[in-house]
Amino acid sequence: MSRSGEHWGNPGGRPGTRTGLVRVDAIGAACPVCGRRKFCSVSRDGGMVWCTREASRDERDYGYGTAWVHVLDAPVRLDPEVLRRVSLAREPGSIALRDRVYRALLDALRLDRRHRDNLRGRGLDDEQIELGGYASMPQEGRGYVARDLFETFGDDLAHVPGFYQWDDGRWAIAGYSGLLVPVRDVAGTIEALKVRLDNPPPDGGRYRFVSSSSKGGAKAVSTLHVPMFGQAIGADEIRITEGELKADVTTALSGIPTLSVPGVEAWRLGLQAAEVLRPQRVRVAFDMDRDTNPAVARAQRALVTALRGAGFRVGVESWDPTLKGVDDFYSAQRAQRAAQ
Predict the structure, then answer these.
(1) Are 37 and 205 within 8 A, CB to CB?
(2) Topology of domain 237-335, per CATH?
(3) Among 215, 220, 218, which Cα is nearest to 195's?
(4) pLDDT digits (tens, 9 = 90+) for 228-278
(5) Where would I find the H helices in 6-125?
(6) What 3-state DSSP class applies to 181?
(7) Per residue in 295-304, pLDDT tens?
(8) What's the CATH class of domain 95-215?
(9) What pairs with residue 41 in β-bridges?
(10) pTM of the predicted model as reported, rounded to 2 decimal places
(11) d(CA 269, CA 303)
């Protein structure tokens, strides 16, 4: 199917460069090597893949983590119109702009009862739900919200991932319907939005960054998440996991500030956060499928090694493997206490 490639450059290369790589999530495609719909990148001619799951002899560092180069025996066909729009995608605006627009968007939307009940079932109380700032992304009626936000922010809206214009000038909001999860930095600033899909595709994940790069809008910013509840700054101990909502729930149930990298391949963001926060101890809590998923196992080893090399005391958390995530573990403990 593929062979290791050599000297292909950086997957963040600008359109028109030799590599011309695009993220599979930006073009609505699946990785031709591992089948996932996020993190991996494909060359514009369809002949090369930078895969973040399946190893090859050609290993690369792409800024957030590790990718492996695969040159395909038979190039895949990519939609030229989607590629054209991606090439026109705008760079995201400033953090301050994204924060203002996303706060206004979340205020304009409401949190559906089913999503609120889901959050309560995970262990969040109403105060934490309000602090988290969650909202429901509807399937219908987004155009009215986008129009109102344009009246407030004007053309700056074009530089906020998730917003784009139709050919007739009408504004729209891209992405799937589902639960919106704000992705925040240590100061509580909203840098991005993640959506937990109501109806995930059978061959894709349940979570997606809100982006409009495939519509000619701004591309999403893949960044670390720090929950609103739980004080990470000055904490003696922090935890690093993968998954924003998972981090929120785990922080609420365990009392330990739990930060989220946007994917295990982005483990270096966890190291960078630890170096900024300087806790005495760091817990690493990637999902228990690390026992069967080589990509998760590799990322965990890399993060633990890097943290120890930076002088941190590191503990790797394990739990019942039938409970995939660390949030599942604490939720199960909560249920057991309630039943006693």
Answers:
(1) yes
(2) Dna Topoisomerase Vi A Subunit; Chain: A, domain 2 (3.40.1360)
(3) 220
(4) 988 888 999 999 999 999 999 999 999 999 999 998 989 999 999 999 999
(5) 80-87, 95-108, 113-122
(6) strand
(7) 899 999 999 9
(8) alpha beta
(9) 23, 50
(10) 0.80
(11) 9
